[in-house]
């Protein structure tokens, strides 16, 4: 018995042969959630991965602070900050494509602009870039909006847990 079978026990059923001669998966086996390629869930997963890469992909040794490509590219004066703003604008573009309202797009654009303008200040801007994670903020805003409007199933279940001890 494999580890996966111990954690997720399944009924042992024979595989079904499909019409083209290939074998399908057994009934009763657990599968991971796979979003459809054109779905909102898939788009949001891509945006979350992009935000992670831009804002918190690397750990600075010694201080255990996470930074991303935005902070690294921002070390190059002017050009790096402009490139970071351009890359961060992709999240705003995708939010517009997913049907986010204008007020949300404006708030996301303000986060990008604030990150770019303050990040352009030498030295202090680089420290700010490492601390202010505009991409992750924007993806979190978009996720929260899509969950509230019903365009996306909730990532977390809201409520209170009650312990039932006898």
UniProtKB/TrEMBL annotation:
InterPro entries assigned: DUF4112 (IPR025187)
Q: Name one Pfam family in it.
A: DUF4112
Q: Where are the transmembrane segments?
A: 71-92, 112-132
Q: What is this protein called?
A: DUF4112 domain-containing protein
Please tell me whether the keyword Transmembrane helix is annotated for this protein: yes
* Domain of life, per lineage: Bacteria
Q: Which UniProt keywords apply?
A: Membrane, Plasmid, Transmembrane, Transmembrane helix
């Amino acid at each position: 018995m494999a580890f996966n079978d111990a954690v997720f026990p399944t009924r042992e059923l024979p595989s079904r042969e499909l019409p083209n001669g290939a074998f399908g998966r057994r009934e009763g086996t657990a599968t991971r959630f796979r979003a459809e390629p054109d779905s909102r869930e898939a788009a949001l997963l891509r945006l979350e991965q992009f935000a992670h890469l831009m804002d918190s992909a690397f750990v600075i040794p010694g201080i255990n602070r996470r930074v991303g490509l935005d902070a690294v590219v921002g070390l190059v004066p002017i050009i790096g900050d402009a490139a970071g703003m351009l890359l961060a604008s992709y999240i705003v573009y995708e939010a517009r494509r997913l049907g986010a309202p204008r007020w949300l797009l404006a708030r996301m654009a303000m986060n990008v602009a604030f990150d770019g303008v303050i990040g352009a200040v030498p030295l202090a801007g680089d420290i700010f870039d490492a601390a202010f994670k505009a991409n992750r903020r924007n993806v979190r805003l978009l996720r929260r909006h899509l969950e509230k409007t019903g365009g996306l199933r909730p990532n977390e279940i809201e409520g209170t847990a009650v312990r039932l001890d006898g």
